Amino acid sequence: MDNDAIADLFSRLGPITIKRLFGGKGIYFEGVIVAIELRGELMLKADAEVAAEFEAAGCTQWAYTGSRHGKRVAMPYWTVPDDAVDDPDEMARWARKSYEAGLRAAR
Hints:
By secondary structure, this protein is an alpha+beta fold. The chain has one domain: Yope Regulator, Chain: A (2-Layer Sandwich). 29% of the residues lie in helices and 35% in strands. A six-stranded antiparallel beta sheet has the order 1-2-3-4-6-5. β2 and β3 (32-38) form a beta hairpin. The chain is globular.
């Protein structure tokens, strides 16, 4: 996903900043990371407070198998709900949840 497409999708949230991160892109709103784009997949930040909402919307959490001990490592990022993929208004609703999760993580 190119930067213009990402900016368009997040346009209803407000101005975002896109920076290189993890070999992909970090998407920031007001200095708080709200999403990442990695290997062509966009994922929104979530925490324990909103993870159930992401799961109920059919999203999946980013996880990988660690190389040191072979254990599953769950990251605080979830796939974007299907109804938000092409709808900036719906994306803004989910991105606000991600922004709030980011603010809580910074405490």
